[in-house]
Amino acid sequence: MEIEILKPTDLKSYKELIDECFGTSNDLEKYQKYNENQAYKIFVVKEGTTIIGSATQYALDLFTFDFQPCLMLFNVAVRMDYREKQIAKYLLSHIIENARKEGYRSILLTCLDTAYPAHKLYESVGFTKENSLKYAMVL
């Protein structure tokens, strides 16, 4: 297994992974824009030429007193037939190590309250559950 940054030639395979894991996704053009935006990094795990897992990070500065560089993590996904093989843990550990090397101070993510396997995964690599309430507005 290899971890790499998503290549433009792999966008279709990436979309197929996201569709499989989340039921639906954006169109290819939107993923291409994300992939071209330097604030985003889409990491993929490959077995041969097949994308079997991915996670997307988005870099931002938190507007705190010292403008801490922070990463937002989302779309952590592993193909159904590759689950329970430590792939997501391997990928997250890679992202966490890269974040430390690049000087980030924290990584944030959100997760559905009922996604218990994901909770266990995130806690196993060092994330802690925070007491917060998420608000959203559809525009």
Automatic annotation (TrEMBL):
It comes from the Bacteria. InterPro entries: Acyl_CoA_acyltransferase (IPR016181), GNAT_dom (IPR000182), NAT_camello-type (IPR050769). PROSITE patterns: GNAT. The keyword Transferase applies. Keywords: Transferase. One of its GO terms (molecular function) is N-acetyltransferase activity. Residues 1-139 form the N-acetyltransferase domain. The keyword Transferase applies. This is GNAT family N-acetyltransferase. It comes from Enterococcus avium. The lineage of its organism: Bacteria, Bacillati, Bacillota, Bacilli, Lactobacillales.
